[in-house]
Write a structure and sequence with these properties.
The chain has helices at 3-11, 23-31, 50-63, 92-106, 115-129, 167-170, 174-181, 197-210, 248-266, 273-282, 306-319, 337-344, 364-373, 384-395, 407-421; strands spanning 41-45, 68-71, 83-85, 88-89, 134-138, 156-159, 188-192, 212-216, 222-228, 231-236, 239-243, 290-293, 297-300, 325-329, 350-353, 378-380, 400-404. The strands form three sheets. It has an eight-stranded mixed beta sheet with strand order 4-3-2-5-1-6-7-8, sandwiched between helices. It has two domains: 3-282, 3-Layer(aba) Sandwich (UDP-N-acetylmuramoyl-L-alanine:D-glutamate ligase), CATH 3.40.1190; 290-421, Mur ligase, C-terminal domain (Protein-Tyrosine Phosphatase, Chain A, Alpha-Beta Complex). A hairpin with a 2-residue loop joins strand 3 and strand 4 (88-89). The chain is built from 15 helices and 17 strands.
């Protein structure tokens, strides 16, 4: 099949949503010849920060000389973004070739795989075909029953920040959610975000039960050296690093990544300090408080739950004090969008609302009506591009605009803005 046929095959599966369980993905990987067995993994789970930590680790391991695969979800604009090697996305031809093999292996299965399961199996087979030295594998939803957990024991498991999201599937408390995330512990080594003690206790229990050696990032050892729109410089445990990722929360993510590096070193991986420093300095992660346009500035942020939006609001206050701020806002209806909106109100002078590109989207008009009821100036627009254009106009030459609330919207806004730059 060609690329377009491959996309139709992936998108045409009967089950598009999440169906927790490892039976289908395990059978599919078995039919593909168990490609996971030829790979080494760093497995990353968490509510927020998975992508940032994964991007930092990918950059570090590439700089250390390892051929490094990265698997993420969701994508911003093209599905190819979900699987890359040393920062280069899979080609259309490569995607089509892997999908052809995938379709042959899946034929005749008693139960159809979900879209996420198919893409996960495709990515793992691609990384095996390309003989990656290591794969940074980001979970989709949860951990214990996530399709990515069909891999063998990783060289390092990583747990990032944990918050209340997907509670209907993962549990109603952060402790229950942590227990699900810790389902990626299988022995070996693990590193975790500097979490509250009640959550640490859950992770320690899961680590002890599986014989996993666990360490936590020590946020008290972070020292901020400088911070501006061009990036941040900080020290962790006395060593200095520079990152382009913005926001105080990114220092916590960086410390978590550094803790994972230490665990990999302890497991025998050769990762020099220069490779860590270069990897951090060169790491990029699109649509995470990313300044896509300048003069006026337009920041695109994919934050899509209350914990994310609290960090986005804090970053807006930090980097744009005293500046007129127009927020392009949209959300999915099954998120806690009212709380998300309330968190952004103090950081925005005006709202421009749009409907994200998803069947689960909250209508922009309903969102604008809610915000007006909260005493805000808010107007809805028919398309995401119209809303982005309006946000720029309303910001004016001396203001700034920011898109937040949904990754499904962030990709479209980012592409529109990049078109303006050209």
């Amino acid at each position: 099949m060609d690329y377009e046929q491959a996309l139709k095959y992936i998108e045409g599966v009967s089950w598009l949503g999440s169906r927790p369980g490892l039976e289908r993905i395990s059978e599919l990987l078995e039919r593909l010849g168990r490609p996971q067995d030829s790979l080494r993994f760093v497995h990353v789970a968490g509510t927020n920060g998975k992508g940032s930590v994964s991007a930092l680790l990918r950059s570090v391991l590439s700089e250390a000389g390892y051929k490094t695969g990265l698997y993420i979800s969701p994508h911003l604009t093209r599905v190819n973004e979900r699987m890359s090697i040393d920062g280069v996305d899979i080609t259309d031809d490569g995607f089509a070739a892997c999908c052809t093999a995938l379709a042959g292996a899946a034929e005749g299965m008693a139960e159809s795989c979900t879209e996420f399961e198919l893409i996960t199996a495709l990515a793992i087979s691609y990384f095996a075909r390309e003989r990656c030295g290591v794969v940074i594998l980001e979970t989709g939803l949860g951990g214990r029953l996530d399709a990515t957990n069909a891999i063998p024991c990783p060289d390092c498991a990583v747990i990032t920040n944990i918050g209340l999201d997907h509670t209907a599937v993962l549990g109603a408390t952060v402790e229950l959610i942590a227990a699900e995330k810790a389902g990626i512990f299988k022995g070996g080594r693990a590193a975790a975000y500097g979490l509250p003690e009640s959550v640490r206790a859950v992770l320690r229990e899961k680590a002890a039960a599986t014989g996993t050696e666990l360490s936590f990032a020590d946020f008290s050892r972070i020292e901020r050296v400088s911070d501006g729109l061009e990036g941040q410089v900080f020290k962790y445990k006395g060593r200095e690093y520079a990152i382009s990722l913005l926001g105080g929360h990114q220092l916590f993510n960086a410390a978590t990544a550094l803790e994972a590096v230490e665990q990999l070193r302890a497991a025998g991986w050769r990762i020099g300090q220069e490779a860590v420093e270069r990897g951090f300095a060169r790491a990029a992660w699109p649509a995470r408080f990313e300044r896509v346009l300048r003069g006026p500035d337009f920041v695109v942020d994919g934050g899509h739950n209350p914990q994310c939006l609290a960090a986005t609001a804090a970053a807006l206050e930090r980097y744009y004090p005293g500046v007129r701020r127009v927020l392009l806002f949209g959300a999915l209806a099954d998120k806690d969008w009212r709380e998300m909106a309330r968190l952004m109100i103090p950081a925005a002078d005006e709202f421009v609302c749009a409907t994200p590109d998803s069947e689960r989207a909250l209508g922009g008009a309903e969102l604008a009506e809610f915000l007006r009821g909260e005493g805000c100036r808010a107007e809805a627009y028919g398309t995401i591009e119209d809303a982005a254009r309006a946000a720029l106009e309303r910001a004016g030459p001396d203001g700034m605009a920011c898109c937040a609330g949904s990754l499904y919207m962030a990709g479209r806004v980012r592409e529109y803005l990049r078109g303006l730059k050209r």
